[in-house]
Design goal:
Layout lengths: L9 H12 L3 H14 L4 E7 L5 E6 L6 H6 L27 H7 L2 E7 L6 E7 L2 E8 L4 E7 L6 H5 L4 H18 L4 E6 L2 E6 L4 H9 L7 E7 L4 E7 L11 E5 L2 E3 L2 H10 L12 E6 L5 E2 L10 E2 L2 H18 L67 H13 L15 H5 L4 E4 L3 E6 L2 E6 H19 L4 E11 L2 H9 L1 H7 L2 E6 L2 E8 L7 H14 L8 H13 L9 H11 L15 E5 H7 L2
Amino acid sequence: MADIIQLLPDHVANQIAAGEVVQRPASVVKELIENAIDAGATTIKLIIKEAGKTLIQVIDDGKGMSVTDARLSFERHATSKIKTAEDLFDLNTKGFRGEALASIAAIAHVELKTKQEHEEVGTHIKIEGSNIVSQEVIVVPKGTSIAVKNLFFNIPARRNFLKSNTVETRHIIDEFNRVTLAHSNISFSMYHNGSELFNLPISNNRQRLVNVFGGKTNEKLVPVEEFTEVLKISGFVGKPEFAKKTRGEQFFFVNNRFIKSSYLNHAINAAFEGLLRPGTHASYFLYLEVNPKTIDINIHPTKTEIKFDDEHTLYALLRSAVKHCLGQFNIAPILDFERNSSMDTPYNYKNKNISNPNVEVDSGFNPFKEEKISKGFSSNYKKEPATSWESLYVGLESKSNANREELSELQFESEKVTPSIFNDDAIESKLKTFQIHNKYIVNTIKSGMLLIDQHRAHQRVLYEQFLQHITVKEAVSQQLLFPLSLEFSNSEIGIIHNLKEQLEQTGFVFSKLENETVEITGVPVSVVESSVSIVLEQLINDVENEVPNSNFSQTDLLAKSLAKSLAIKTGQRLTVLEQEHLVNSLFACKEPSISPTNRATTITMRVEELDKRFN
């Protein structure tokens, strides 16, 4: 029998490795920026076109590479970060796997320009699908510029799996923010299709947060600081009243490396217990410093998960540090045994003697005395004896009879009683509903009964209403007494700006939309003023992540997002009139049986099925 096992060619092995390292354009951005940081750069510029599908370019002023290093950097398992296996447990750099550039070069057109400071000329290398097209000398400034063009050009199936430009740009911005927040000592800038999205100068951590998330972020932050032999904690948490419906502002950095940890996230939630509104999530930006030898970074290809030697200690320290900062800044109630100055004796009364109050008693006071002269009345007035109470009712009977005679002379216009056009059976079959556990509406029908999910049913009603408003452009708007001003980041403002026309067709009226401020003077009839910020936050999150995924257009996504935010929630009690109106509105829809996300809104139970249950 012939041998069937063979070694894969290098270009095939590189493409397989690229599947682990490069999942989308954001993965390339992460690897290239981390390489620039490890090169000691103080200024890093990111340029992308068409959400990174056409171009991803990173320019830095780091130490650059020699001719040999530039050529060798695209080989597999080539790295300057580690030399022995023991170095994996004492990592102080970003990249160490040695597969990033080789994987990127296997699935894209790569152009590298680099020069070291003491060299007169630099190196220019072009690679297409792991094949070196050219290598020549070039005059460039110190540092490195690497451009990745036509990502996944030789793997069309992977390219087809990429999301829309809006979603891919959102992922790139997320990766960009994760790196920039961890390195406030480096200047970053980002450009998308020729327009500047971020320009972050060198600053401290707090100022970097303000530059990334907007000027109003500063007043939402509470500083956290705790230093122990095991762990050093610094950073900020958001005040509970500014908690958001999404988890977009939750960042852990361990030794200046962004990580995801559900275990440590639980510690933050435990510290905020009892302070957050239901359905909201706390914001936090926490920088943790631990001994590199006590963590293992090499457990995930993207290096976003870390294994700690002693997670329980870190959990306890993190929870107590956050809880302490919330109490220290009067965010959470605390026990305070210190003296309260408001209970002190005033200065003017400090040396005065205390005198007993004078109490005067009328020894002749008798409340049961009959001829008691009331204060404020004439002295000629005397109280009637108790025995004359019958006289109070004398003459009442004659007066009542007289009133009846007067009323009998009045004439009233009576309405003519017209016979009903409906028979008695129709009246008895009038819609009757009731609610179960404030979640389902039960309605009797001829064949049995109908169970309706009130949340999904209302979603369907609102969804079709919003689609009609956007299409016909006849939405009704209720004007606000005072303009409502909301703050968003630059990227979020861009999303609202793109959806402005469609939002106006649903009933929103914008008087200002610039910088980081949105001013609203009118909202749809179905939107309460207090929930406008929640609705827009949910809409921005859905647009960024294309949730739900099955959308025919951006208008469809907008209608689904608004319907999901404004629909009646599970657990909300409805009156009989509201139940009947919801049922009638549902069956007036074009597709009453399914929600906008293709889930059932109603279940029918026939009488025969109920009979079987009792057999």
